[in-house]
Amino acid sequence: MKTEKTISPDWLSDPAVVRLFDILEQGDEHARIVGGAVRNHLIGVALKSDVDFAVTTTPEETSARLKAAGIRVVPTGIEHGTILAIIDDIGYEITTLRKDLETDGRRAIVAFGTDFAEDANRRDFTMNALYVDRHGCIYDYVEGLADVETMRVRFIGDAEQRIREDYLRILRFFRFFAWYGQHRPDADGLKASMRLKDGLKTLSAERIWAEIQKLFLAPDPSRALLWMRQVGVLSQLLPESEKWGIDAFPALMRAEDEHGWRVDPIVRLMSIVPKRLDSVNDIAARWRLSNADRDRMRAWSNLSAQLPKNDAVLRALAYRHTKQATVDGLVVQTAMQNDPELAEFAERLETWTVPDMPVKGADLIKQGFEKGPALGAKLKELEEKWIESDFRLEHGELMALI
Fold this sequence. Notes:
It contains 21 helices and ten strands. The chain has 402 residues and is of the alpha+beta class. It folds into four domains: 1-150, Beta Polymerase, domain 2, CATH 3.30.460.10; 158-237, cca-adding enzyme, domain 2 (Orthogonal Bundle); 248-354, no CATH class; 361-399, no CATH class. Strands 1-10-9-2-3-6-5-4 form an eight-stranded mixed β-sheet. Strand 7 and strand 8 (108-112) form a beta hairpin. Helix 12 packs across helix 17 and helix 14 (277-287) packs antiparallel against helix 15. The radius of gyration is 27 Å and the shape is elongated. The model has no long low-confidence stretch (mean pLDDT 91).
């Protein structure tokens, strides 16, 4: 229903947004902005969010109107009523009002409609179901305004029903709590998440990892992770963390803040799992990590549990195991041991440029070596001497050692 509350965010007067309202509301049709942009403005968080529209026009009619106005249209999810309008290289998601006809915990079959209240009641959380018209008037059909004011993440209607419609909502519940929740998580949401956590097994690895990364990017995910562990969700997703614990997380966040380190989901994942290759391989396979992320975690796991406070030794490790892995190891160890001195070693190593071995196989061939094991062994021997010199030996000095 329409409330007495109005807002005037900058994005509401943006020329592109005004233009879209003009196009979408021709005739007797209606358009409102819904979701993250509204929520974030009301909360006052300094987070960027896409400006998404909910409209009464069908997807076909929406596309036809936009194309007639010379706006590029991308049918990103037209079977679910969603198209993307591109204006000045910025995408605006436009979705027809809808209701669920059938759900299986992963996807839904929907019917399009013209009822905003019906559309609101099929969404996940109350704070995500607030609509704003072009004049800044807020429409609230699910008591979302009250939950925004108290920073309460609450499922719309019956929590179990919402989760059964899409089991990813369990992870979204904890992710939104990490970003926006205060005090305890909503009790009904916790109970439903605990009862239905087995449904997470039906989700694709890509969806799970994408959601976990968003949770890890929150300023402070530690409370959400604690509650995930309490109700068994974390063990369901990441059994490696069960006996390892999440105690390093607060110290890692302090170190990130004190040293200006960017928040890195992979480093945060490293901080709550054992530093073992078998564990890393299991996680990489289960969540289908990218090859780059998998290899990064593998290199980190191959480092010793305790890295030394010695710049030369750390440079040698960085050369052998990659600089990224060695910096990762120092960052995680800084958190585990709450040792700011380790952070200084990490920062020095971060600025170091990994050098190239001065002597190549061609240099040895010129000295009479033939291609084969002997040449490879000699190169390896020279490389080890070069590393032991802290990379100071130059080409001529190395050749003199042959």
